[in-house]
Design a protein that fits this description.
The complex is a heterodimer.
Chain A lengths: L1 E2 L2 H10 L7 E4 L2 H11 L3 E5 L12 E4 L2 H11 L3 E2 L2 E2 L3 E5 L3 E12 L4 E7 L13 E4 L8 H10 L4 H20 L2 E12 L4 E3 L2 E5 L24 H11 L5 E6 L10 E7 L1 H13 L3 E2 L1 E6 L4 H12 L6 E6 L7 H15 L5 E4 L5 H12 L6 E4 L5 H13 L19 E5 L5 E5 H4 L6 H5 L5 E4 L2 E4 L3 H8 L5 H9 L4 E4 L7
Parallel strand pairs in A: 15-16, 15-18, 18-19, 19-20
Antiparallel strand pairs in A: 1-13, 2-7, 3-4, 3-7, 5-6, 8-9, 8-11, 9-10, 11-12, 11-13, 14-17, 21-22, 22-25, 23-24
Chain B lengths: L9 E5 L4 H13 L2 E6 L7 E2 L2 E4 L2 H8 L4 E4 L6 H10 L4 E4 L6 H14 L2 E3 L5 E4 L3 E4 L5 H7 L2 E8 L2 H13 L4 E6 L10 H10 L5 E7 L4 H10 L7 E6 L23 H11 L2 E2 L6 H10 L2
Parallel strand pairs in B: 1-2, 1-5, 2-4, 5-6, 6-7, 10-11, 10-12, 12-13, 13-14
Antiparallel strand pairs in B: 3-4, 8-9, 8-11
Helix pairs in contact in B: 1-5, 3-4, 8-9
The chains are: A alpha+beta, B alpha/beta.
Chain lengths: 503, 299
């Protein structure tokens, strides 16, 4: 789930008419001081991080004067809470508390549907909501004030407080619904000594899959992360976002490591198979640099980009690709994507690639053929080879691998004499050097082309469809023309697939 | 018998003219599924692999007669409307293959399905396959694989992971243990037919003698299965493996459903609940065939 910071969540609550304390965000101690001057002291200074233990970790402080606010903000900003460095604080008026409540909307798979939770006890430290009352909400009708009032009645809240609170709960539900939150929690709702209700803290998490229709939220990476997104996470997310074919999911798990520490670049396929394959790596004493999943029959170009991103982590000692072992997706695309990446970077670490499933024989053949001239062992396995066995093979290869100091120069870009080219759906370019094609007898590119969009014109390969059609996705980026031309032809085809931020 | 799908069911494919729709229609037809119609708005009158294509589901039902199942291969943002269209047309079972369907859309589909007495598998499912009978979705990839990999027999398989559905079914078949039906319930947190529903179907199915369950961290599905064993709703032996032991709380590894939220749905909690209920818990994935065989032999 894409989590929002407290101040972002509060903005959404405010838009729906839920009162929030007067507050301002600050990115420096002096900004915090100015905020306190404007709001009026006493104030609370709150670290804006995704952590449930801010109070216990020193992420919350109180101040009586602007000067004091500046000093407290200085302590909090730059501090590490959980995995997050505090970059922003929220400076808010301090409320005089009469009572604190807890309320949240979440989606329960058991119903299935939205559920309202309410507890007469709220506040920091009240994380365990075992005592909360819950109520299922009809997703079509929504939450009506009378239903919310019934729940509050059960909680022993009546009269004017009941009507005020039920109004707030309805607005909380509407906030969750409109922004497609998977959960929206206010803890605490504060009843002040003068009888007003405020959302004093809030945690909202938006459904990853709905982020595309909520540009107003400005969510950069639509997924839950226990760390702030890394540069590589952002690059990978960009690839995923711009190519809807199949799934590509990438999270960097470790960054601070070096060669020789048995950290592996991991490339899974499918959620369940990936988790199992990671367990197999851990059992062999490896650490895992990243999680990655390309599945759902992705094109070769997507697998290639994933592999390039994984390989850009400099300290990895090996490459492990493994999914469920009996894939329904066409594994030949995975093989082509992987070997293109391996060849381009001049792979110098051992790789174990488990390609079991649909088209595994062709896939493993491609893997071996196109990696035979690399200076490092690459092994391919099929559906009868379990992940545990493959992880053991990688252990043996990594332990026995002493790379040459002289790294092979990656293949340099060719300068075609007579280029014929077209664009692909992900802004890639396919170039044939007709000066070489003219000498080719095989014309293998036309035969190998997956979507069958090439033809011969005066003995030279050209598109059998328009340039526009190719660029709209008729060229599926299967990479077969480039690779089979290298194998049987004149090495006259070159496909360039940009990865913004990595190249 | 089998559950959910066999060769007698008449199937509609929504999104049949797309890349995936076309490829999987081939798989389904070649494997033995009766695909009687396809639907893509604006493409009515065409045909895909001799299957007639209609603009709307209603039109398809009018032209070809009653339909038992609709399989959806449409982009995630369009799934809700496509599913509601099939529900309104009175099709009793939907298989929603796409990944990344927004969860509030799933809740609306679920609400409408409940009202009309419709069931749906998925979203984010590889589908369901009854060996030697029929397949819905994309399990196996190609008919020749699916025929070669999956044998028919007494085991019902219900799994939270698509790839793992195929791999468990394959490794069981290799060990000469066949399957009645293998079901991928879908990788999302909210799915139409979660494990408990599938287990009840297997409980009713005379061909199924043993149920194999592949669970994962997150959601309450496995805990509910444990309750159902305790209360006697499920009496057939259950062999269970729970994936995601190494996963940290709050980090999601691909499957939207595979996330531990607020301490619920942990690996340890699920294993303990199922073990206590009397399920045969398998600690290592590779042991599933062996344990299943032992349980079958003990019947």
């Amino acid at each position: 789930m894409a989590r929002l910071f407290e101040h972002q969540g509060k903005t959404l609550l405010k838009e729906k008419g839920i009162p929030i304390p007067k507050g301002m965000i600050a990115n420096s101690p002096s900004e915090a001081r100015r905020a306190a001057e404007q709001i009026g002291c006493p104030v609370v200074i709150k670290a804006q991080v995704w952590s449930t233990s801010r109070a216990a970790s020193g992420g919350i402080a109180f101040a009586d004067s602007p000067h004091d606010t500046e000093k407290q903000a200085e302590k909090i900003l730059g501090q590490k809470i959980g995995q997050f460095v505090v970059e922003t604080v929220l400076v808010e008026e301090e409320l005089s508390i009469r009572q604190e409540f807890y309320a949240s909307i979440l989606i329960h798979d058991r119903v299935p549907g939205p559920v309202l939770l309410f507890n007469v006890q709220g506040g920091s430290g009240v994380e365990d909501q075992a005592g909360a009352l819950s109520m299922d909400i009809d997703v079509i009708k929504g939450l009506c004030p009378s239903e919310a009032a019934d729940l509050l009645q059960k909680a022993g809240i009546s009269d004017s407080l009941q009507s005020k609170l039920s109004d707030l709960l309805v607005r909380l539900y509407q906030t969750a619904r409109v922004h497609e939150a998977r959960s929206a929690e206010i803890n605490p709702i504060i009843l002040t000594t003068d009888g007003e209700l405020y959302a004093a803290d809030c945690r909202i998490a938006i459904d990853d899959y709905a982020v595309f229709r909520h540009p107003e939220l400005g969510i950069e990476i639509a997924r839950e992360l226990s760390n702030p997104p890394t540069q590589l996470d952002k690059i990978a997310h960009d690839v995923e976002f711009h190519d809807y074919r199949g799934t590509f999911y990438f999270i960097q798990l470790e960054q601070d490591f070096h060669k020789g520490e048995s950290v592996i670049g991991f490339h899974g396929a499918g959620g369940g198979g990936s988790m199992m394959s990671m367990d197999a790596l851990l059992a062999e004493g490896f650490r895992i640099a990243n999680f990655c999943d390309t599945s759902g029959n992705p094109p070769a170009s997507k697998v290639y980009r994933a592999a390039k991103i994984i390989l850009s982590q400099p300290g990895i000692d090996g490459y492990f690709a493994s999914g469920s072992g009996v894939a329904s997706q066409e594994q030949v695309h995975s093989a082509r994507g992987l070997v293109k990446a391996f060849r381009e970077v001049g792979l110098d670490i051992p790789a174990v690639i488990r390609l079991g499933g649909n088209m595994e024989d062709e896939a493993v053949e491609i893997l071996y053929y196109f990696t035979q001239d690399l200076s490092t062992p690459v092994e391919g396995y099929k559906r009868d080879d379990p992940a545990s066995f493959c992880a053991k093979r990688l252990r043996a290869l990594v332990d026995g691998h002493h790379p040459f100091k002289i790294k092979e120069e990656p293949k340099s870009a060719m300068f075609p004499e007579k280029p014929y080219q077209f664009r692909t759906v992900t802004k890639g370019t396919v170039v044939f050097d007709h000066a070489l094609c003219v000498q080719c007898e095989s014309k293998i590119c036309v035969e190998a082309c997956g979507p069958n969009i090439l033809k011969l014109e005066e003995g030279l390969p050209v598109l059998a469809i328009s340039q526009e059609e190719a660029a709209k996705g008729k060229c599926t980026e299967c990479l077969a023309c480039e690779q089979e031309c290298l194998r049987y032809g004149k090495d006259a085809a070159q496909i360039t697939l940009p990865i913004p931020g990595l190249d | 018998m089998a559950i959910l799908i066999d060769e007698t069911k008449r199937v509609l494919v929504q999104g049949i003219t797309g890349r995936e729709g076309r490829a999987r229609t081939r798989l389904m037809k070649e494997f033995g599924t009766q695909v009687v119609a396809g639907c893509t708005p604006g493409k009515g009158g065409e045909d895909v692999l001799d299957v007639p294509v209609f603009n709307t589901v209603e039109e398809a039902v009018e032209q070809v007669g009653p339909i038992d199942v609709s399989v959806l291969f449409v982009p995630a943002p369009l799934v809700k409307n496509a599913a509601l269209e099939s529900i309104d047309a009175g099709i009793p079972l939907l298989v929603i293959v796409p990944d990344r369907v927004p969860v509030w859309d799933v809740l609306e589909i679920s609400h409408s399905a409940k009202e009309k007495g419709v069931q749906f598998l998925g979203p984010n499912t590889l589908g369901v396959l009854s060996p030697q009978r029929a397949v819905l979705g994309m399990m196996g990839g190609r008919a020749e694989n699916a025929r070669q990999w999956f044998k028919r027999g007494p085991v019902g398989l219900s799994s939270r992971s698509g790839g793992i559905t195929s791999s468990i079914a394959y490794y069981l078949s290799q060990a000469d243990i066949g399957l009645s039906t293998q079901v991928h319930v879908g990788g999302d947190s909210v799915v139409g037919l979660p494990h408990p529903e599938i287990m009840l179907m297997f409980e009713e199915d005379p061909e199924t003698k043993v149920i194999v369950l592949f669970g994962e961290i997150g959601t309450s599905q496995e805990e509910r299965v444990a309750e159902m064993i305790q209360t006697g709703e499920i009496t057939k032996p259950v062999v269970a493996f729970i994936g995601g032991k190494a996963a940290k709380e709050g980090t999601r590894f691909s499957h939207a459903g595979a996330i531990i939220e607020g301490g619920r749905g942990t690996h340890a909690g699920k294993v303990a609940a199922l073990r206590e209920a009397g399920a045969h818990i398998v600690d290592s994935f590779d042991q599933i065939p062996e344990v299943t065989k032992t349980v079958l032999n003990g019947l």
